[in-house]
Inverse folding.
């Protein structure tokens, strides 16, 4: 498994992303930055580790694992990387869009 996914790199990318997301949430809760800028910053803090996780997969076999019809370790890892990065990007993105719509209505 270490030949396919570098777990240390993924751990560091997640740590850095969570650190900056937490920092942005702290700044927003203390009203030191506006909510829309904080949400943009949180989206950026989640996009960077998500992209780096995809790029840290060794060997470029992610597409092969996604298109494989059998359930193997490589296909499970490929789908988990894709789903994790999609969630890391979509959750802050949807929150940002929802907040921008709320601000536009007022």
């Amino acid at each position: 498994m270490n030949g396919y996914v570098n777990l240390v790199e993924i751990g560091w990318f997640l740590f850095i992303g969570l650190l900056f997301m937490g920092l942005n949430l702290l700044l927003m809760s203390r009203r030191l930055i506006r909510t829309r800028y904080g949400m943009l910053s949180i989206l950026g803090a989640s996009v960077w580790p998500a992209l780096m996780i995809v790029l840290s997969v060794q060997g470029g076999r992610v597409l092969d694992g996604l298109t494989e019809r059998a359930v193997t370790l490589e296909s499970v890892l490929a789908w988990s990387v894709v789903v994790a990065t999609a969630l890391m990007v979509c959750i802050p993105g949807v929150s940002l869009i929802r907040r921008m719509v709320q601000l536009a209505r007022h």
In short: The radius of gyration is 17 Å. DSSP finds four helices and no strands in the chain.
